[in-house]
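W.,

You were right to be curious about this one. When I first looked at the sequence I had no strong expectations either way, so I just let the prediction run and decided to look at it fresh. Below is the sequence, 216 residues in total, followed by the output.
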Amino acid sequence: MKKYIALSLVAGSLLLGGCQSAYYGAMEKVGYHKRDIMVDRVQDAKESQQEAQEQFSSALEEMQALLNHDGGDLQSAYNKAKDEYESAQGAADDVTKRINKVEDVAEALFDEWQTEIGEISKASLRRNSESKLKQTRRSYSKLLSSMRRAEDKMPPILTAMKDNMLYLKHNLNAQAIGAIKGEFSSLQTDISSLIREMNRSIDESTKFIESLESGK
């Protein structure tokens, strides 16, 4: 518990300062190395993708409920769909932020690793460390590509949702709802594709974390 509090205080003060290199250095002094930070940030990115999956699915459900609306308060149904769209936008922003944090610590970790390999005098140990670094870089590259592919699928979906929400905002009636029903199947397909891509990224995250923690 004391270590957790210390880490939280260090992290909070340094993040406010905005200096990542100072942050990593200070965290290392309290026994929290870049590899540990990397594991945590990949886990955070993984969880943000899981949350985004749920949020995009919820947004789709509320939009479907709006399109299938039959009597009752149409404005209330619209407001629910709009709220879910805005939450999906927030979830997408969080995914991007988390991936960027993974990328930042990865660069710092690999730079440090490469530098320290040069300080190893024994050739066999140096070669072994170089081999592990290359393997970790390959695994990380695969992970990052998977994360970015999933991330790239979100903006077009959000744009389509926003278009629909804005259109309905100015034309909230049965005729307007009927006009956008034709786009709904495309939106369903796109979100299903997004969820599949995120599942692949989540699987890659799990494998990468396991490889870092096991040292393989």
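Here's what jumped out at me. The radius of gyration is 22 Å. And, maybe more interesting for your project: Residues 1-6 have pLDDT under 50 and may be disordered.

Coffee later to discuss?

I.
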